[in-house]
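Hi support team,

I'm filing this because I wasn't sure whether my run with iron/sulfur cluster finished correctly. The job status page said complete, but I'd like someone to confirm that the output block is well-formed before I use it downstream. Pasting the exact inputs I used:
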Amino acid sequence: MGETLFVQGNEAVGHGAMAAGCEAFFGYPITPQNEITEWFAREFPPQGKVFVQSQSEIASINMVFGAAATGVRCMTSTSSPGWSLMQEGMSMLSNAELPCVVVLVQRGGPGAGTTRHSQMDYNSATRGGGGGGYHDIVLAPASVQEQHDHVQLAFHLADKYRNPVIVLSDAILGQMAEPLEVKALNYNSLPAKEWAVRGRDHQSDGQRRLILPAQGFMPSKAYPNYLTFVNNLDQKFKEMRRTEVRFELQDVEDARVILVAFGSLARVCQGAMEMARGEGKKVGLVRPISLWPFPAQAIRKLARDGVKFLVVEDNLGQMLEDVESAIGESAPVHFLGMLARHEAREMGMIFPDRVLEEINKVY
Amino acid sequence: MAVKKEKVAGGSDLWIRPEFAVIPSCPGCQEPVVGQLILEVVEEMGLDGEAIVVPGVGCTTFLPVIWNMDAVLTAHGRPCDVATAVKRVTKAPLVFTVQGDGDCFAIGAGPTVSAALRGENITVITMSNTNYGTTGGQMSPTTVTGQRTTTTPEGRGEMQGHPAHVPELLGGIKGVAYTARGAVNTPANLQKAKRYIKEAFQKQLDGAGFSLVEIIVACPPNWHYTPIDCLKFIDETLLAEFPLGEFKNVDRVEQPIPVPAQ
Ligand code: SF4
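And here is everything the job wrote out:
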């Protein structure tokens, strides 16, 4: 049993990173993730770990590139406009096959948008926002505890696949406080990072190492040509699709209406579902935890006769497309998005009673 | 990366011949000459097994790829960000970038200046050929006034701004220990350039702060001169615009005036 704290979701990220053995953090101020950067600024240097306040998010992600190349666990965090700036770096990391973790605390978009919550970066995170058609595993925590747990899982998966992993949070999860049990999660141990640079004389075989974001262009033993490299990416993404799908089902067995929601909106939907069950309505919930790879198969299986789906997201319908493509014509898919917020200013939220109202409409 | 230890240029054993490249530069290019100087200095300082080189993107990229030295290639313009992290995390005695003037002063101006402002204990070796060579000879930060390139067909004029004097510019920053500009157009200048590189690396070993050495290099195909005429162009035109020498040389980082305890 670890220590139990009462902390914000943003701070939980720091505790998770520490438990995962993260050695370096690079960040640039942006609301609503500042508590993360400030946590690392406070906690890392006294432990001899690296914290650098970069000059931009472009720099943050490239510093992550450099640190990851040396084989240490490293990360950055940002919010939506900073995430936009990081896309070149994300694409480079993917080519160079460097493991790292990026925590994306979503705010309203597009553009500078708002400094309040939204779930408007679903597409950008799950589709590989930079050039070149790559994929990152995207984890969607729904509590302060999961902010901490998913950061640890993210580090493990990043190392397992030599690929960046995104933890997709938002302003609500980042800034709300809940009890957190701080504990190191155990995952299977992974092979040492033989590929990392550390100075030629420090390599076990005395051979120099070359990390490059142009694999397939400059031939190597592993990838003598471009298609060999692209094929490797394909195999890797297929393997992720096979083994890294994560989701949670609640009361779906007898449900007539199945809610589909991730992150903070899954919490809202949980409340709505309980209210509906209290009224005797058969309502269930699917919560995708990995947004990429998306639990399409699990959702498809639930599309039996008479079941209706209600996708609830704080955007204009992004995961909706994944749900629709999973279900096809087998069941009706309804949508409740950010236009259902309780008020028109940027702090407006989709509340459980509004979701309940929609459940009653489609039931 | 499998490497056969086969010498491809005189002087340093650190040149290697991978499957895919011999000397990657055009005939008459002076970048491999600078590469040779860097390797000589690294060897003389006994650092080749400890050093980590961070090349940018451009003609210079292809040199460190064939050095027997750990290397982290980066996106275009990002070496100073990447080198910052490599140095901070590994604390390797020598972490240096190899860049061209476009990589270092145009797309990479932010990372270069920011690393200097932070006083990062890294070294930048940048080669100025006054154009973007890899992409076919467009205007770059060090293109001189009146010089024709594919994007200044009438010669660089006022609307295209002025040639960049980066060692002078960065010399004014607290946190910068050393800046210099060299050339390799004569044996005497070549020896001086080698001394500048050594001095810059020594600053890093001493923990004195950020160091940068710019070296003027000939680019015959894009200048449309023979290699011999390139030397004349350097001597008569480029060195008139870009004086050689050291612009900053301090033994420890100058400390800004601190505020009283808050
Ligand atoms: S284009 Fe110019 S700088 Fe580039 S390799 Fe050729 S000669 Fe050298």
